[in-house]
Amino acid sequence: KKSVFFFYNPGLLELSLGKFRNVLLNQTNPVEAVIRNIASNVTVIIFQVHAQQSDVVISFDKNPSVNSSGTGVDKGLVSILQPQQSVCTWYLRSLDASQVLSTAISIPYMEKDPIPGGCNLEFDLEVDPNIYLDYTLVDIRIKFAPANLGYTRGANPPSCDSGTGQNSRWRLRYDVYQYFLPENDLSEMVLMNHIRKMSEVQSIKANGIKMLTLTTDDKTNVYFSSLPGQGVIYNVIVWDPLWNTSAAYIPVHTYACSFADLVDNCSSLSKLSTKVFFTALAILGLFTCFFGHRFWKTDLFFMGFIFAGFFFFVFITRITGLGYDVRLILTAVAGIIGGLFLVASWWRFGSVLLCMFIIGLVLGFLFSSAVFFTPLGDYRVFRDDVVFWVTFSSVALMIPVLFFGCPRILNILASGIVGSYAVILAIACYVYTSLAYITLDLLRRVLNDYFSRAYTNVPFQTNDFIILSVWTMLALSGVTVQLRRERSEVPFPPHPYLTWKRERERRSTNVLDPSHHIPPLRERIHNKLLHIKEFFQKEQPAGERTPLLL
């Protein structure tokens, strides 16, 4: 691990180009950051400061104004150098009364390097290299100002609207990068160490994940799926294909949650109702994973619960404004009704094909969700909802169709895979894992009309590999145990209603059958109650016990 040294001076912070410095900021004493002896071939310096959760103010002057300062957790300024200029100065302070840990760096660029935010027409700064980030529980949006071409010291900047040819800013390209912080780690020092990897062009290319490339014709805003509790850093590299030069914007980070909230903050995201719901589902799923085919009615209840609960939750969320806890309780009730209905349907009609179609759909939906959980899901063609849902449904329906001729195998596979995944969803309520987003991203797309525009890339780190191994082990063990135990048994139990009906007819016609003489149920219950009543009665005095004389 690298050693980290803190530097704090109430008045002055000496910086070197391209070198990070950690600094403690407060509200009352602004820190003056200075760079000296700037080389003459440097035309632009981008100065930036980062904090984890507390806003900092960065400005050109001691008294900040709207057009000369920026406020936020990830902010930067562009200094356009004048001829003979060799010193640059900025001022830093926090908005919190307490001290705030931050890290600062200044990055130099030459005359042929593009200038991030050089054609800003939307934000307050004249040249704005910042990336603006907004998040909800569903998605994250980043937005930035277009760049301009580089130019020499003292020259006028190229016009932003003089034309669209190869000699204008329209030739520039924008590469958007994503970087995931270590899972389950919300510490400040981890952020400070990792944000350095996303600040300069070469380190961004070496460590970040390139998500897409924008041209000047595209809108400079991009959407990503939200990952509450997981730290993510975004940055943009603007590239000039004519000179083959690049420059980086100011990296921006988010955890898609609040550190300040007392309830549902970054440290405790899952609600109690969610934990109870999925823990109960995991217990039933674990039983189904190993004993689903043997206990056929329990298996039917589990699959019916999932099928009915999913569609009811979607329905009630789309048409009502009920709170999350209420919707979850109603979903549990609907799932129970759906599970009992599937069991009752089997008992009355005994249709294996109908039951197996529902079970195959549940497995098919999970399989199709896993397919789109891969990088395949971020292909541009699937931004179209029609293309996505037709493809998704086709993949989901493929499972029951392929296993049409072997329903027992389908049921054992479904109970093993779906049952074990229920355990993974319960684990996700207590420990972050990206595997939960296999189904969560599908739910988001169903519930939100604009989620199709979001890139759904997620981290896959040590935690995820361990939990994936647990899922694989559970699924393989459950399927193997059931296949070995059921290989000599009948594929499915006989139709329960017909069996009961035949048994009743047999008892009513065969007088030699002892069961024919069994009293009716009402009489048996009455006799049992009398027996219990006699057990609690006190014994009466017997009187004289002398035998009678004949």
From TrEMBL:
Q: What does the record list as GO biological process?
A: negative regulation of programmed cell death
Q: Which GO terms describe its cellular component?
A: plasma membrane
> TM7S3/TM198-like domain location, by residue?
279-483
Topological relation to the membrane, as annotated: Multi-pass membrane protein
Asked if the record carries the keyword Disulfide bond, the reply is no
Indicate yes or no for the key word NADP: no
- TM regions (residue ranges): 276-293, 300-320, 326-347, 354-374, 386-406, 418-440, 465-483
Pfam families listed in its UniProt record = Ig_TM7SF3_N (PF25992), TM7S3_TM198 (PF13886)
- Subcellular location(s) per record: Membrane
Sorted keywords for this record are: Membrane, Transmembrane, Transmembrane helix
Q: What is the name attached to this protein's record? A: Transmembrane 7 superfamily member 3
